[in-house]
Fold this sequence. Notes:
alpha+beta; GGT_ssub_C; Ntn_hydrolases_N; GGT-like_enzyme; Gamma-glutamyltranspeptidase
Amino acid sequence: xxxxxxxxxxxxxxxxxxxxxxxxxxxxxxxxxxxxxxxxxxxxxxxxxxxxxxxxxxxxxxxxxxxxxxxxxxxxxxxxxxxxxxxxxxxxxxxxxxxxxxxxxxxxxxxxxxxxxxxxxxxxxxxxxxxxxxxxxxxxxxxxxxxxxxxxxxxxxxxxxxxxxxxxxxxxxxxxxxxxxxxxxxxxxxxxxxxxxxxxxxxxxxxxxxxxxxxxxxxxxxxxxxxxxxxxxxxxxxxxxxxxxxxxxxxxxxxxxxxxxxxxxxxxxxxxxxxxxxxxxxxxxxxxxxxxxxxxxxxxxxxxxxxxxxxxxxxxxxxxxxxxxxxxxxxxxxxxxxxxxxxxxxxxxxxxxxxxxxxxxxxxxxxxxxxxxxxxxxxxxxxxxxxxxxxxxxxxxxxxxxxxxxxxxxxxxxxxxxxxxxxxxxxxxxxxxxxxxxxxxxxxxxxxxxxxxxxxxxxxxxxxxxxxxxxxxxxxxxxxxxxxxxxxxxxxxxxxxxxxxxxxxxxxxxxxxxxxx
Length: 517
């Protein structure tokens, strides 16, 4: 079974499984198709992470997150009068990690050649995928920036307006890049592509040396980080991702959400646990530090649980932001499972294309690195910025696969993943009920670019009136969003005790789940 946020990607993964490929093969095929069908959300120039469970129960991860520039000292940006790293343009770019992560995923788990898996994406780029509803919306929201980059404009706004849904978006340059990347992923970091990208970025004022690109070329598998929840083990992506934040919330909520499903008490507990996690992230965590170990210390968790029980935690105001990201999940006949997520940062990343390649570059440095003096996440040469992306797999007492999932949405991800896990393991919801359940989001979070926003608890209108009233009485400033208006596009696959798979894609976007017999 596979599930993704676009039908063409899901069908690509299902075709691979039907042809005898495994879950890693299906994931790689879906990744390439989403570069074309959801180009505002992901791309070759972005980052990517995966959690893989092998049939023998072993769990491993790959993390593709690139370095900031070698000349990217905090003083470099402050000397230019900046209080935050820009989100658009060359200064917001980090070395893309996605090609290295996909290469590692292929080398350590695939059964089919990368060229074979990505040839359908090459053909699609040549012919032009029909513009999806999500892409049309993304172009509309980023239209001024899209128009400002000649190569983005040529594909997504040739008439100066967003493309209508269904219009073919032909990208021959990107087709050539995908084929070349399949033949030699290292070229992205040490060959002609790298030289072209670094030259463009340096000309635009970004302090890249080129050496940081070469240093990002190799990604090795890492162990997952794990924690318990409701008798299951939740396996998550390690730093620089916020996977630890999901484990922290799980530890703070385990055994405390057994009341009515999405009752005021449950929402209140999860919201306050999320706020604590964001406070800890901002105060303690950089991409290369020991903050998560301190945060997940058992004694510290117990102190925070007592604080939540007494409703005595303090709050701070750091604004949470959304983000454009997409995820896929896949399980093969042998029980191998992959939860995968990739992103450009915000919509169309830094809104710049490497000339002649079709590759849009991310804005992850602007998104995830701080200019706060002395902060553990302060920008520094050759330092990876903190990430919003994370993915998870849940296993049982004997290591058996129970479920896997993921959801895009910036700092919403760590909150919504906790909600998915609670729906599944506290209340026994099926996959479809889980991804379509009412969603809520605490603001603020801990993104780098905005500080000081007022405290809010944003809830979809499908949360009942009486629950919202009760939450207000409990001290939350409740802001109501439209039904299915919170954001995110969750993907979940569950496996029951008989080995039967059930999957679902979030109705908030265009995705589908497909099973292969």
